[in-house]
């Protein structure tokens, strides 16, 4: 339902924008002013697309392209080597994915996975996705522009666009200048975008790895996790529940030192039986509030409290003198504050009969004590996965109240998107496929490497066409298989 609503709003926005553009262009009283406005601002509207184009950045590209020519020549030459190696790896990976799929062999991780908002992209992270695409697209095209200036190819202009909800960028280079420069210089220009995307991945990895050290003066790690968000109307929300900004240190007897430990604590609580607590038998009898007329049901749920209290819970226990199961309605807080036990033998007091009491719940339901902040432990009764999906946590605990709570999460998430999307652009753009950088990279490389051994330009053109056809079919098959995997 949410995906349908988003699609309807998106379609309504683009339909309204396109109809407004057509109306203003066709109306005599406003068409001249509107066309003048579009020409002055560089904006243009088409079906499901909004574009902005301007030569305003040409002087900036010229200055950067003329800065340290020797360094830039080496920089973009390294980009050629990286792009050519990546092209071979990309074709190999895409062939391997098709081969494994046709053999009906499970692929642990898709090489090519389409990102669909509301399907495999959380709606809350759409802005990360759009910002990452815009940053990667701009830096990709800036790479082409600077390399073109370095190789004496004129840059006509630069622009950005929004297609449906996918942002991007483009650069307009002089075709006449591109055709007259040597194949090696063409390669430096064509490979510059992919090279910059590769550098983005490396920088994002370095930032992600060094983040704990950089944030060390402001955040502490390795002792607890910080609660960054609690789902509304969940079992642990509310003023008496878990609150954003509290450190979470343990779940029962399982210490939570980082997100990995948090995951393990949840998994262990699902696999292991509920923990018990040591109480003297006489004390159990004194505080037991089980109704006198209650009798144990033959089957079904056991609730010796008859659901009459929010603070009491039904517990079961055995005594040393009797092997039969006893039930008692006990105050949950008082009971769980007692020492933890797994077996009856864990409980011992000289001269006092002590029992290990367990929550009388089914195998899926657990009673967990969640240690958070400086408040008493929160008692959670339910499936551990409900707890896990109700709470968002971070490894970084602020050292002061003025330190932003979500800053590490924002930086980490943005870096992960940069690594994922910029890496995907590297893999896809170098494939020798129509309309991708790989098409022009492949053509320039064939001209560079085969001009002396294959002097006939028609034969070189035929080789290029075969490679281009193969790459296009290969990428098309992967797109079809990825879409089929996503929706089946």
Description:
This protein is α+β, with helices and mostly antiparallel strands and 488 residues long. It is 50% helix and 17% strand. The chain folds into 3 domains: 2-47, no CATH class; 58-213 and 411-487, no CATH class; 221-404, no CATH class. The protein has helices at residues 2-26, 28-41, 58-65, 69-102, 126-150, 175-180, 183-214, 259-271, 281-287, 332-336, 384-390, 407-429, 437-450, 457-487; strands at 43-46, 49-54, 155-163, 166-173, 219-220, 225-230, 247-251, 254-255, 276-280, 312-317, 326-331, 340-341, 354-359, 366-372, 378-382, 391-394, 397-398. The strands form 4 sheets. Strands 6, 7, 8, 14, 15 and 16 form a 6-stranded antiparallel sheet that branches. The chain has a 5-stranded antiparallel sheet with strand order 11-10-13-9-12. A 4-stranded antiparallel sheet has the order 1-2-3-4. The model has no long low-confidence stretch (mean pLDDT 87).
What would the keywords be for this entry?
single chain, 488 residues, alpha+beta, 6-stranded antiparallel beta sheet, 5-stranded antiparallel beta sheet, 17 strands, elongated, metalloendopeptidase activity, MBTPS2, EC 3.4.24.85
Structural class determined from secondary elements? alpha+beta
Q: List unreliable stretches of 5+ residues.
A: none
Estimate percent helicity: 40-55%
State mean pLDDT (0 to 100 scale).
Answer: 87
Which percent band covers the strand fraction? 15-25%
- Structurally, how many domains make up the residues? 3
**Spatial separation of the terminal alpha carbons:** 18 Å
Beta strands, count: 17
Largest sheet: 6 strands, antiparallel
Tally of DSSP helical segments: 14
């Amino acid at each position: 339902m949410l995906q349908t609503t988003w699609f309807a709003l998106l379609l309504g926005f683009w339909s309204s924008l396109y109809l407004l553009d057509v109306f203003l262009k066709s109306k005599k009283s406003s068409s001249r002013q509107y066309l003048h406005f579009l020409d002055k601002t560089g904006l243009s509207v088409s079906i499901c697309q909004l574009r902005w184009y301007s030569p305003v950045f040409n002087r900036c590209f010229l200055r950067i392209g003329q800065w340290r020519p020797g360094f830039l020549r080496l920089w973009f030459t390294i980009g050629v080597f990286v792009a050519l190696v990546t092209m071979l790896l990309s074709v190999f990976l895409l062939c391997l994915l098709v081969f494994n799929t046709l053999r009906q062999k499970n692929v642990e991780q898709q090489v090519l996975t389409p990102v669909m908002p509301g399907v495999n992209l959380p709606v809350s992270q759409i802005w990360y996705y759009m910002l990452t695409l815009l940053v990667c697209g701009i830096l990709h095209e800036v790479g082409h522009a600077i390399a073109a200036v370095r190789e004496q190819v004129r840059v006509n202009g630069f622009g950005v666009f929004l297609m449906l909800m996918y942002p991007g960028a483009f650069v307009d280079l002089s075709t006449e200048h591109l055709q007259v420069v040597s194949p090696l210089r063409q390669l430096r220009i064509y490979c510059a975008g992919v090279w910059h995307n590769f550098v983005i991945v490396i920088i994002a990895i370095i930032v992600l790895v060094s983040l704990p050290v950089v944030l060390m003066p402001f955040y502490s790690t390795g002792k607890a996790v910080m609660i960054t968000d609690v789902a509304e109307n969940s079992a642990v929300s509310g003023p008496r529940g878990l609150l954003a900004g509290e450190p979470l240190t343990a779940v029962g007897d399982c210490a939570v030192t980082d997100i990995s430990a948090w995951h393990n604590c949840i998994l262990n609580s699902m696999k292991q039986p509920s923990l018990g607590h040591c109480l003297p038998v006489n004390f159990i009898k004194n505080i037991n509030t089980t109704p006198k007329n209650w009798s144990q049901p033959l089957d079904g749920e056991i609730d010796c409290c008859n659901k009459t209290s929010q603070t009491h819970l039904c517990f079961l226990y055995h005594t040393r003198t009797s092997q039969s199961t006893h039930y008692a309605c006990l105050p949950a807080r008082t009971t769980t504050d007692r020492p933890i036990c797994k077996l009856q033998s864990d409980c011992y007091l000289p001269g006092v009969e002590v029992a290990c009491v367990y929550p009388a719940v089914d195998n899926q339901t657990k009673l967990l004590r969640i240690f958070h902040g400086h408040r008493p432990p929160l008692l959670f009764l339910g499936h551990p996965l409900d707890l896990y999906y109700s709470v968002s946590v971070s490894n970084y605990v602020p050292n002061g109240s003025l330190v932003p709570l979500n800053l590490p999460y924002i930086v980490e998430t943005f870096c992960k998107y940069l690594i994922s999307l910029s890496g995907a652009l590297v893999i896809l753009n170098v494939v020798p496929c129509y309309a991708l950088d790989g098409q022009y990279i492949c053509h320039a490389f064939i001209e560079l490497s085969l001009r002396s051994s294959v002097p006939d330009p028609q034969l070189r053109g035929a080789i290029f066409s075969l490679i281009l056809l193969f790459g296009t079919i290969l990428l098309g098959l992967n797109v079809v298989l990825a879409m089929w995997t996503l929706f089946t």
